[in-house]
Design brief:
Number of strands: 21
CATH class of the largest domain: Alpha Beta
Strand order of the largest sheet: 3-4-2-5-6-1-7
Distance between the termini: 52 Å
Number of helices: 22
Oligomer: single chain
Helix content: 40-55%
Strand content: 15-25%
CATH architecture of the largest domain: 3-Layer(aba) Sandwich
CATH superfamily of the largest domain: P-loop containing nucleotide triphosphate hydrolases
CATH topology of the largest domain: Rossmann fold
Structural class: alpha/beta
Length: 578
């Protein structure tokens, strides 16, 4: 394979060279090496490349090279299928163009207010990054001008067509000037994508990065586990525990499933949240940021919202259903193993999906290996091993002399009252007993026992008042009188508490949504006056009305809870963000 050229061979403006140097970029990826030159030369280009190969910079760098900041006119338009991908492209352009004085990049997509986007466009946008639906609206209102466009880029063309944007794309292309350079990128060059390209691109140069999918797949270990349909989520929770998972995305088919599966995982003591198209964009961004920062470990998502999602700590992708389309499978798997990193993809399927699995294997030319499904003994051994490691890690921990003296004094007192084996056994049981006992045999789980199994998979380390410690934070559970039947999701609750209540994301712990209520954990350091203010926040047209929740307390339908919930609430006006 020939050596790739250095970025300096493209003779970028000094501002771009400085940005590339500061970012540590000295050599382009294959798609960048082949696409940047023709785009700089003004050619129309069709590029085939998977996400995670650096294709964004392949068209962003030439755009930045040719932008004239002495004019306020819109000179480049980049279209992406989803809000997440549009935001990601805009972030990349902002980072790479950080040294270009006066550069203005505006992102427009659904979920943001029209007035805010119009104001940003009116102030001057050299580059507009947009999703098709919102762009069409702004074009119709005259807020986006196309007569000054010099470059038009269509990214993830295959996904846009699969999402039904073909008419919007045709409209956008038809409104661009005849001399506007057009570039199209797609993971697959289907007949529909090539039809669009042939109609709107002039003598395009085709660039296909051969084996991108295969190269990406080589970085990703791919497995499948066969279980019965009603055991998939339980198998998922056990795999999340047994695998060395850093962060994970779980793919499901429907928006409703995202909330249901996230709830199940929360019950199993796994920090998970749903992300779907019904959530406002700011909450989706906040949820992704919680995954990125480690406040949660698992996102349960649909295919659409995961497009363009790039979080470095995603080590695993789980499919709770195999997609029937091979390209969708590749896009799902591609959320891990990004930019050369290692990753693992596990599909949890029933026997009826073995045919689809075989088709995916034939298409990719690579075997997907069967993984032995979890057993109670494996879980037990795993948990015992974790406790064993924790004991020795704690023994090697450095502590100050005063603390060490206190610990030694306490140790002598305990050993004076108990035999050594009894003392160690009691301490381990008090510290990790619930974790060791929280084992459910996969084969024994039947539909009629599902509710009972749920109650056994409670979160670890709770005291008699239901308080849970996580690191240095103690969380207190509160009950909300709103649930799934009112359309509530964990993201709604986080958004209301953070955006309207002014809490830090770390002040919000686990969230469990039920049909008629929800349980949210809040930092125990919050004052009663702060809880009172949070209770007045209105969500889904109802006040949150936070009530301390104890698993030993009477059920909410008892009279003292009814009195609190049915008491008239003073109406508080505010601008809803969820």
């Amino acid at each position: 394979m020939s050596e790739l050229p250095a970025f300096e061979t493209f003779e970028f403006r000094n501002e771009l060279n400085q940005a590339l140097s500061s970012l540590g970029f000295d050599q382009p990826t294959p798609i960048q090496a082949q696409a940047i030159g023709p785009i700089l030369a003004g050619e129309h280009v069709i590029g085939q490349a998977q996400t995670g190969t650096g294709k964004t910079a392949a068209f962003v760098l030439p755009i930045l090279q040719r932008i004239d900041t002495t004019s306020k006119a819109t000179q480049a338009l980049i279209i992406a299928p989803t809000r997440e991908l549009a935001a990601q492209i805009a972030d990349s352009a902002t980072t790479l163009g950080a040294q270009i004085k006066g550069l203005n990049i505006v992102t427009v997509y659904g979920g943001q207010s029209y007035p805010m986007q119009k104001r940003a466009l009116k102030q001057g946008a050299h580059i507009v990054v947009a999703t098709p639906g919102r762009l069409i609206d702004l074009l119709d209102q005259g807020a986006v001008k196309t007569d000054t466009l010099r470059m038009l880029v269509l990214d993830e063309a295959d996904e846009m067509l699969s999402m039904g944007f073909i008419e919007d794309i045709e409209t956008i292309f038809n409104q661009a000037p005849d001399d506007c350079q057009r570039t199209l990128f797609s993971a697959t060059l289907s007949p529909q994508v090539l039809k669009i390209a042939n109609r709107h691109l002039t003598d395009p140069k085709q660039i296909r990065i051969g084996g991108n999918t295969q190269q990406s797949a080589e970085q990703i270990k791919q497995f499948y586990v066969r279980v019965k349909a009603n055991q998939r989520v339980l198998a998922l929770s056990q795999l999340l525990e047994l695998q060395a998972v850093d962060g994970a995305i779980v793919f499901v088919k429907t928006k409703q499933q995202t909330s249901e599966v996230a709830d199940e995982l929360e019950l199993a003591g796994i920090k998970a949240e749903a992300i779907n198209g019904d959530m406002p964009q700011n909450l989706r961004e906040l949820t992704v940021e919680r995954l990125r920062s480690g406040l949660i470990d698992v996102l349960v998502a649909t295919d659409v919202v995961a497009r363009g999602l790039d979080v470095e700590r995603i080590s695993h992708v789980f499919n709770l259903d195999l997609p029937t389309n091979h390209d969708t499978y590749i896009h799902r798997v591609g959320r891990t193993g990004r930019a050369g990193r290692k990753g693992t993809a596990i599909s949890i399927i029933g026997s009826s999906q073995m045919r689809i699995l075989s088709q995916i294997e034939r298409h990719s030319g690579r075997e997907i290996v069967e993984l032995e499904r979890p057993t109670a003994q494996k879980l037990r051994d795993h948990r015992i091993g974790k406790v064993y490691e924790s004991v020795f890690a704690a023994n090697n921990q450095k502590t100050d002399s005063a603390t060490q003296k206190t610990v030694l004094d306490l140790t002598r007192q305990i050993l004076g009252a108990m035999e050594p084996e009894e003392a160690v056994s009691a301490l381990i049981n008090a510290w990790q007993g619930e974790q060791l006992n929280r084992i459910t045999e996969l084969d024994s789980l039947r539909p009629e026992h599902k509710k009972a199994a749920r109650s056994e998979r409670s979160s670890p380390a709770k005291d008699n008042n239901g308080r849970r410690r996580e690191g240095n934070v103690i969380y207190v559970p509160y009950r909300l009188g709103i649930g799934r039947s009112q359309g509530l999701s964990p993201g709604n609750v986080v958004g209301a508490l953070v955006n309207e209540g002014g809490l830090e994301p770390g002040d919000v712990g686990g969230i469990r949504v039920r049909d008629d209520h929800a349980i949210v954990e809040l930092n125990s350091t919050l004052k009663l006056s702060e809880i009172g203010k949070l209770s007045k926040i209105r969500l889904k047209r109802r006040a949150l009305n936070l009530i301390p929740f104890s698993e030993r307390a009477p059920k909410p339908e008892h009279s003292k809870y009814q009195a609190k919930e049915k008491a008239p609430q003073k109406r508080v006006r505010f601008k809803a963000s969820a």
